[in-house]
């Protein structure tokens, strides 16, 4: 029953896919060039070029925070502003990484809500700015978003057009990029560089790897400086092949998309059961692998007693203008590459058992 | 024969120990708390406390550069000076990581030579400094050094006493700490905190791991800020257990010391053969796993033709006042946890075959 | 009539008091020690100690932005948060100076409105914060505020108590400190260090000087590092006596308070006339030397035609929840040490002439 | 006799020229646009364009350190290297300002000696650099140098050609630019932008002003970012006209060159007398307004007893390979715009009186 306890708390808590473990074990037996001068890293770049159908540069890094900070440090000067949502990982979960990496750039939140929208961003970027205020340098969006939504291709294109027109860079935080691609069934190129994205933080860690993150650079003018910034900030692995091996295992045979599709499907299934069972009310459409649920405190407690701890979430992430009714809580459930149909069923059975006594 | 090619180029180029691979594969099958809130990370701290016989804090990070920069950023203000040797990794190989992480602190080289010495450092720290110059904040030494030397316990104690007297911090870059401990047969505590060391970059990557580095904090006053700085600079792994699992595998049954002892022994054996065979002249005593050799260009070329590429090294790292004779080069050979007696013998046999034609 | 044009636009646009000019001219004839090692600078410190009735350290700097950034850089680490109002100078007018000087600290706005209030700040500082978010390091308030309000002694004491309890520093931006002291008729000590303020940016430039700003450090533990940070950031004048001479002239015979009292009195008088004449509606109480007025666009245009350009102000600085009626604008008028009764009368006469035609 | 005491200690210790005081007093009586939006600042830009015979941008700042750091922060990334002499002000006297302003760039000293030379710099910039080391971004020279030498036009052109070829920027620290121009009798354009200089720190403070420094930007691509960096680092005066007024007074009727020429002439005269009188030995040619003298300790003491304190200087600034004989000291004498023939004569007379008893 122990496994149940933290079920669905985060895709960071899953283990690692066997294919990734095997690839790593195989690579471990050989000698490799250091600091990225190895065959696996060279192969990884080729693989990403295939996936994105274009020339690009790949900079593997240890963490998603490192990827976001590295990408944005290449485009935002110390007096720059980076536009994001209030709930963006760069704003809410990275302990000031962007500000530090850029020497002081400021994160600006031009609008409430879980997505940046082209109309508002256009208006925000059109405001006059004198020498006394920070100067817009970049917009950054998460795909999928922190609320489990996927930006539609048209939304990204519109933002890309605004960014280009105002001469600011366009960064995408793709810690859950695989989930977004799987959800949209879109070509990776169509929701990135073809839509105006300059740099992408491509995440593998939440999708079956140990630690595999990369900055994918479409705007090759930025590549040279990112190389040095990566080293200077301690993000260049000496045995870089160990990141490349993980990524290669996950990118082979479209595993990264299959794993993400599984996570998405289990999330959809779980969400449906949550609604059907009357356990709680879905706050946002479930478009990727995250589910946000308004749930009665009494039920939450009953679930805990039954062995499932759900992860409470701050109500500041509710849709603008809404709030929790008395006696209710907000919780987040996340599925992953390893979530199985059995996991969902086990959860639903547990919910059924608390059905009567858990009701208010 | 392919394997021979880059033999002895760097301990970064070795693969990974099977015990580490196995531990990682085992851990990969389970769910774990994220961001270090996992059992393996808790166990790692306990293990390091045992090894160093004291309370301490452990901050795992991705790279040695990250470890050094993180440790020094906690003690050197932007107007600080950090004293080191000219060949220190922080000076010569980290692309300005220390300067960046501290917001501008300067690396100062108070003396030529491969080690900092207490008498010179004491004198340097006694110089008057007004508001126009950077202020000493820390000294940092590498153990083992970049020239493959081990600081003797008495040398470290003397530096520790000077640091304490001048109220500057004392950091040790232990990318090859295992090799130093194995070489000195000293208690880890005796050559670190008991000798006045405040923080230690403890390296596992060069010693059988994929990517396992940590800042060991003996001066617990520094721990809190290092926690936040680590996160802010993108060094906190979400699946932190994967670093802990590697370290635990390497620290179990004193493997880390056995692996390092093997590297040291093979280096000693290799060095002896190099001298005996007349291949070249040893530049520094071989106290750990690095060998620096003055070698005739003709022999170097003959070796290359025979399939072994040795790594040329800048002559700026020669002892002060010495230089290479005409027609000679400086090369570095490094052994590792995985270097076998057979490897050394294979090398020596190759040397023998080029014996006559390689001679000038 | 030219002078009228930009009347009341800013206290930064006034000239300089004759007493300051004379003091500077006198000092200019002598040789002085450089970098603050001069008699005038020594005398300035003594003078400030008298005024604030305590030991303190004085760091003269070129600008108010330099003062704020220097003071906060001494207390906020790169992963710190500094709490301020949305309209604070550090947030709205310093081009990211605080973020840059601290290496990345973030400005947080815990509440809407023109003042920080102890109850809200206490609640904000009581929120749990994990390693993923910036850590509160300081609160900063402007005295007088950007809306021309003066914090009452009890308000400052309450904030000081909260700061102390949560172990964060307390900084005061006193670009218009003189106006606040004159308005409150309070002892400078009572509204600074006795109320818990650690550092004060003391402004002279808006109050009769050329360029005279200083960080007054009450918490002497902070003094040493501020000395070096000032130099490192290019804020230490070689002929520092020229700032000291200005300050000394303004602090002699309570001139600084008389000048500020004049500015306040003319502002009060101007505000009264604006209301009486029906020119516009006062938005905030006029407690110092700034007046914010809601005015009909037609009147604003008529004034411009008559030769007075008033300074339009963003409606984002209106009280929370309020907005401008159709056809109205927000303007700011500022008086200074040099504003005379005649200036106010001239303005009012102009207003009278546009009276009828300017009315909607 | 008091005035004698610190005679010739530094050009920072002189007072201010009457013409500058008068201009400031006149400007003080008027209202001016703030933050550089004033007529005097506009006029200053026009004046500098005349003097340098080209389009350029002018950024006034408070101090020479601010000017150097601002100029270099616009061209050196955090992973950059800035090449300078060991005795450069940026290296020896600015408390790490460059490192801080650039986010970590490193100052590199490619050669011993008081000047950078094109041949050595070319060789240094030709060295291969991989990702592990900082990347050259700029060279910076002082004109006149810290040893009182003037770079000849041909020397500057040669450095400019090297900088251009290696795609690094070329900065000139002109804290004593006036002295160099007066010494060389060269067109300012010829020793700056025509020779490849991108940015110049133009100093007025040591040459008759209170505090008047500026970054002159010849490479206009750099101008925009310097504007924001200046504000962000607290260097933009609200009453910026007060710097412009000082500069304008000093630039009118070639006063800046006359004052510098006087300083140079008095230095030459003083140097000659020092040699003739046997007081000491000149260490460097006296090309500007600084004199470095090797002097017997006994004489130095006798001078002190007679009322003149000369400024001792570190022997690390002696020519490479030379050292002081036993019983000797190195002193520096500096003349200024206000040094008179009478000052020199008074000094020489004093020297004469100690003549016999001061001799060893």
What does this structure look like?
The structure is a homotetramer of 360-residue chains. The first copy, chain A, has 360 residues and is α/β, with parallel strands linked by helices. Chain A has helices spanning 2-5, 18-27, 39-52, 64-73, 89-92, 97-102, 118-126, 153-165, 177-184, 223-232, 241-251, 255-276, 297-306, 341-358, and strands at residues 57-61, 80-83, 106-108, 135-142, 169-174, 199-203, 213-217, 280-282, 290-296, 311-312, 328-334. Chain A folds into two domains: 2-13 and 256-358, Aspartate Aminotransferase, domain 1; 18-254, Aspartate Aminotransferase, domain 2 (3-Layer(aba) Sandwich). In chain A, the strands form two sheets. In chain A, strands 1-7-6-5-4-2-3 form a seven-stranded mixed sheet, with helices on both faces. A four-stranded antiparallel sheet of chain A has the order 8-9-11-10. In chain A, a hairpin with a 7-residue loop joins strand 8 and strand 9 (290-296). In chain A, helix 12 (255-276) packs parallel to helix 14 (341-358) and helix 13 (297-306) packs across helix 14 (341-358). The mean pLDDT of chain A is 95. Chains A and B meet through helix 2, helix 4, helix 6 and helix 10 of A and helix 1, helix 3, helix 5 and helix 9 of B.
């Amino acid at each position: 029953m122990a496994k149940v306890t933290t079920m669905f708390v985060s895709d960071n808590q899953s283990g690692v896919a066997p294919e990734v473990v095997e690839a790593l074990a195989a690579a471990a037996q050989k000698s490799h060039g250091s600091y990225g001068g190895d065959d696996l890293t060279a192969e990884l770049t080729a693989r990403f070029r295939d996936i994105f159908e274009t020339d690009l540069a790949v900079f593997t890094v240890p963490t998603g925070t490192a990827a976001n900070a590295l990408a944005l440090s290449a485009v935002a000067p110390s007096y720059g502003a980076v536009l994001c949502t209030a709930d963006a990982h760069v704003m809410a979960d990275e302990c000031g990484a962007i500000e530090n990496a850029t020497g002081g750039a400021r994160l600006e939140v031009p609008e409430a809500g879980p997505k940046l929208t082209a109309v508002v961003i256009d208006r925000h970027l059109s405001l006059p700015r004198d020498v006394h205020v920070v100067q817009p340098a970049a917009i950054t969006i998460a795909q999928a978003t922190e609320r489990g939504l996927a930006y539609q291709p048209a939304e990204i294109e519109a933002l890309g057009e605004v960014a280009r027109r105002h001469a600011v860079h366009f960064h995408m935080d793709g810690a859950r990029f695989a989930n977004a691609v799987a959800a949209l069934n879109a070509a990776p190129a169509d929701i990135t560089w073809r839509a105006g994205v300059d740099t992408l933080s491509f995440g593998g860690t939440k999708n079956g790897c140990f630690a595999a993150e990369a900055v994918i650079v479409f705007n090759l003018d930025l590549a040279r400086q990112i190389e040095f910034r990566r080293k200077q900030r301690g993000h260049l692995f000496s045995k870089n092949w160990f990141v490349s091996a993980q990524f290669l295992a996950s990118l082979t045979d479209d595993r990264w998309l299959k794993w993400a599709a599984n996570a998405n499907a289990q999330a959809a299934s779980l969400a449906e059961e949550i609604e059907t069972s009357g356990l709680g009310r879905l706050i946002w459409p479930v478009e990727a692998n995250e589910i946000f649920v308004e749930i009665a405190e009494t039920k939450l407690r009953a679930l805990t007693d039954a062995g499932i701890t759900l992860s409470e979430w701050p109500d500041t992430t509710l849709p603008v203008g809404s709030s929790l009714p008395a006696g209710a809580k907000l919780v987040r459930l996340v599925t992953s590459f390893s979530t199985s149909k059995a996991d969902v069923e086990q959860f639903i059975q547990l919910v059924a058992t608390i059905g009567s006594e858990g009701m208010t």
